[in-house]
Design goal:
With 236 residues, this protein is an alpha/beta fold. It has 9 helices and 11 strands.
């Protein structure tokens, strides 16, 4: 029987904790423990982490001083910083980890090669995919979906600060309702924010399920992989 393989996408902002910037090592430790639960249950795991706790390309380029392309490359480098930090936290718990970057930086990590990434996964290593797609104008959501498809993941789990997808912004509307399940086309609606449109369209084309969950619900990742979708939203 083939092992389950998942890709988990974490936002960079979540790593910052209450400070709103940088890396909170207590959150790193928590995420590492959640991923270890997957590994201990013989699940193959790929990881993508955003860079918003350090810099976002769109924000850096908003006043025109920094070009959008340069801003996006700065954002890609931020994801590498987060990936290396995550690697350290996972290895601290005794797990085997490889960081693969879409931009070549041999002194820090491997360059992304899909066959090598799959081989690492088959050997029980966690693979953290850094530097987005390696191209400007693409988000880490799109990078996560692309990598999930390339490695043949069974699903992509977007671990966020909320417990799923809502019909409207729950921070603004008290009557907002969580959607337990929705189609790709529904996820593309203007008032629904799951991932960016490019990543959803890519998932739809390749029939890749997207599960949105609260990363701070302990044990949530394992429950989802085991088929418990009670505290999340699934797009398929």
């Amino acid at each position: 029987m083939a092992k389950q393989r998942v890709l988990v996408k974490f936002s960079g902002e979540a790593l910052a904790g209450e400070s709103g910037y940088g890396v909170d090592t207590s959150i790193l430790k928590y995420i590492a423990e959640e991923i270890k639960l997957l590994i201990d249950n013989d699940i193959e795991v790929g990881v993508v982490i955003g860079g918003g706790n350090i810099i976002r390309g769109v924000t850096a380029a908003k006043d025109g001083i920094i070009k959008r392309t340069s801003g996006d490359y700065m954002g890609m480098l931020a994801t590498v910083i987060n990936a290396v930090a995550m690697q350290e936290a996972l290895e601290h718990l005794g797990m085997r980890v490889r960081v693969q970057s879409a931009i070549k930086m041999e002194q820090i990590c491997e360059t992304f090669i899909v066959r090598r990434a799959i081989r690492h996964l088959e050997k029980g290593r966690i693979v953290i995919f850094a530097a987005g797609t390696g191209n400007p104008f693409f988000t880490t959501d799109t990078a996560a979906t692309l990598r999930a498809i390339e490695i043949g993941a069974d699903m992509i789990i977007k671990a966020t600060k909320v417990d799923g997808v809502y019909d409207k912004d729950p921070n603004k509307y008290s009557d907002a309702k969580r959607l337990a399940s929705l189609s790709y086309d529904e996820a593309l609606a203007d008032n629904i924010r799951v991932m960016d449109d490019t990543s959803i369209a890519l998932a739809k084309e390749n029939r890749l399920p997207i599960v949105v969950c609260d990363m701070f619900q302990q044990g949530n990742l394992l429950k989802i992989v085991q088929g418990d979708y009670e505290k999340c939203s699934i797009v398929k």
